[in-house]
Design a protein that fits this description.
CATH topology of the largest domain: Tumour Suppressor Smad4
Radius of gyration: 19 Å
Strand content: 25-35%
Keywords: ATP-binding, Kinase, Lipid biosynthesis, Lipid metabolism, Magnesium, Metal-binding, Nucleotide-binding, Phospholipid biosynthesis, Phospholipid metabolism, Transferase
Structural class: alpha+beta
InterPro entries: ATP-NAD_kinase_N, Diacylglycerol/lipid_kinase, Diacylglycerol_kinase_cat_dom, Lipid_Phosphate_FormReg, NAD/diacylglycerol_kinase_sf, YegS/DAGK_C
Largest sheet: 10 strands, mixed
Number of domains: 2
Order of helices and strands: EHEHEHEHHEEEHHEEEEEEEHEEEEE
GO cellular component, one term: plasma membrane
Pfam families: DAGK_cat (PF00781), YegS_C (PF19279)
Protein name: YegS/Rv2252/BmrU family lipid kinase
Number of helices: 8
Length: 309
């Protein structure tokens, strides 16, 4: 098997290329790992997709290590989707790293342990698709997509991490329009509201630097977790924010504000193109349609405590 380490040197606050390359070289020499390995460093947007697709199309068994954040992971997913010969291993060195948080409190350390990650087995997980773009974690629209769009700006500020950038962006967007006009159809059922604060279609549980939007999500159940908040006042949003971050918003006392269901397909209808946030990356799409592909990706999962899928 080939082991391909795709490193995004701009992920996180500092370039980790030399550190990762040194660890990989040491592990393959000392552990006598079977197969060959190669280190690839991205040079720009979508490089990770192109590199991953190149190895995926070889039709040889390959394990690709996504050394970056959620954006790098998303790029690689879109390069390897539909290729059965590829396994994907996240190495979370980005600023947010929300995807791996779904696997429990020990996830970050476990996925950063390259020695164990190289030996770990693969599991099949679901993927989401929206208008030809694939998501491994979360798709969101409305206020959330505006927050994600502005978060990119704030992450460039000194000493601002992914989680802090998200919080700052929340405050910024909170001062602007929070009402979004679109309709939703879930598994053929048109939902009653026409104005929403935001809508989240989830495969994973976390996004936005540790907001646990979909605490019940299971990456192997073949279902989309749909979390909706119809248009509400700014005061209601403020009251809900910390509850939402902890993943407690699906409790009974919040059911008048937060709507939750599981489905296989979500159709969004709007008069114009809308911003759709796909694993943190923004796309402008007309009437986006979100579907789930059950157990469509081979994901490397190291040994974890408190792991969930």
């Amino acid at each position: 098997m080939k082991h391909i380490f795709i490193i995004n040197p701009t992920a996180g606050k500092s370039d980790q290329t030399k550190h990762i390359a040194a660890m990989v070289n040491k592990i393959f020499i000392e552990e006598a790992v079977e197969g060959t390995y190669r280190i690839e460093v991205t040079k720009g947007v979508h490089d990770a997709t192109d590199i991953a697709r190149h190895y995926a199309m070889s039709n040889e068994p390959v394990r690709i290590y996504s050394c970056g954040g959620d954006g790098t992971l998303n790029e690689i997913v879109n390069g390897i989707v539909h290729h059965e010969n590829v396994e994907l291993a996240p190495v979370p060195i980005g600023s947010g790293n929300d995807f791996v948080k779904s696997f429990g409190s020990q996830a970050m350390d476990a996925f950063l342990n390259l020695k164990e990650l190289i030996k770990a087995p693969a599991r099949k997980i679901d993927l989401l698709e929206v208008n030809g773009h694939f998501s491994i974690n979360v798709i969101n629209i409305g206020l959330d997509s505006s927050i994600a769009q502005n978060m990119v700006r704030f992450k460039r500020l000194p000493f601002i991490s992914g989680a802090k950038a998200y919080d700052i962006s929340v405050f910024y967007c909170f001062l602007t329009s929070i009402k979004n006009h679109f309709e939703l159809i879930a598994d053929g059922i048109r939902l009653p509201h026409k104005n929403y604060t935001f809508a989240v279609m989830a495969n994973g549980q976390y996004y936005g630097g540790s907001y646990r939007a979909a605490p019940c999500s299971d990456m192997q159940d073949g279902l989309i977790d749909l979390v909706l908040i119809p248009s509400v006042s700014r005061l209601k949003i403020l009251q809900l924010m910390n509850v939402y971050k902890r993943g407690e918003h699906l409790q009974k006392q919040y059911q008048k504000i937060v709507h939750y269901r599981q489905c296989h397909e979500v159709q969004v209808e709007a008069e114009h193109e809308i911003n759709v946030c796909i694993d943190g990356e923004i796309k402008q799409l007309k009437n986006p349609k979100i579907i789930v592909h059950q157990q469509h990706l081979k994901l490397i999962v190291p040994s974890l405590e408190n792991k969930t899928l």
